[in-house]
Every structure is written in structure tokens, then in C-alpha cells.
Amino acid sequence: MAEKIFVYRSKVNWKKEKIGILVFEEKPEIVFTIPKEFGGEENFLTPEDLFLASINACVLTSFLYFSKIFQLKILSYTSTAEGTIKKVGEPYVFTEVNIKPIIEVETKEEKEKAVKVMETAKKHCIVSKSVEGKVNVIIQPTIRIRGE
Questions:
Q1: Residues of the chain with pLDDT under 50
Q2: Cα separation of 53 and 21, whole Å?
Q3: What is the pLDDT of residues 55-90, one digit of tens each?
């Protein structure tokens, strides 16, 4: 059986000064800048924001994918993410990313299933696995039963 290979593409265009545009085929464009700590403009996304968001979003999409496989019915999912950047040697790098999902389910059985689904999602999140060994990705879910 042939191995599946997936290819994703994006393009970056310089707009003006310290602002660029990420362009994707048939998807919305994203305007971005350098972090304000390095002289970028305020109120724009940065590559660092997008890196952190990509891990957070990948944890959600992995959880949703495995929820369907495990037949887990979730009522809500909200997640915060925090990334720490430190100077390691010469460059600044992300050293840690903390993802804190809050998941609501209806029953105790669903709560137990949600724990297993999250463990499986952690193992299969493509983005966090791609930085494993370089960035400490910590996923700390809180799973609640509705009404508790």
C-alpha cells in the first residue's frame, strides 16, 4: 500500500514597511507583522501568534477527529494557549507551549471517554508532534460534566 503524502502551500508577499501577507490557495489571506517587541506594528498578527495558534487549533481538530471515531458527544470546547519564548544561545525560540482545553460533556461515561479521546489527540496532533523535542508542549485538559 502506498504511503499517503499531503502537501500544503502558502505564499508570503511583502506589503509595506514591516507588514506581510500570507496567501493561500482558495483561503483567506492573513496580514502579519514583526512582533512589537522587535519593532513591529501593533494590532497585527505575528508569526509567533500563528505558531501558537496552529498548535492550539491542531489539538482541537485532532480532538474533534478522534471524538467522531470514539463516538464522543461534546457539548462545548474552549481552549487557551500560552507560549514562552526565551533566548537559548543566540536566537530566541519557543521553549514551552501550554494548551488548556475546557471540554464539557453530558455524563460521567462521556467524561471518561473524553479523557481517552484527548490522550489519543495528544499522540496524533501533527503540529505539536512536528516540534516535539524542541518545544515542550503541555496539554492540560479540564473535562466537565454539564451542571457540575
A1: none
A2: 17
A3: 999 999 999 999 999 999 999 999 999 999 999 888
Beta bridge partners of 24: 27
Contact 31, 21 (CB under 8 A): yes
141, three cell numbers: 485538559
Place of cell 480532538: 63
Element housing 130 (H / E):
helix 126-130
Check: pTM over 0.90? Answer yes or no.
Answer: yes
* Residue whose entry in the numeric block shows the C-alpha cell 501533527: 126
Q: Output the pLDDT for position 130.
A: 96
Q: Which residue in this structure is represented by grid cell 505539536?
A: 128
What integer pLDDT is reported at residue 2 of this predicted model? 83
Cell of 121: 489527540
DSSP string, the chain: -PPP------EEEEEETTEEEEEETTEEEEEEE--GGGTPPTTSB-HHHHHHHHHHHHHHHHHHHHHHHHT---SEEEEEEEEEEEE-SSSEEEEEEEEEEEEEESSHHHHHHHHHHHHHHHHH-HHHHHTTTTSEEEE--EEEETT-
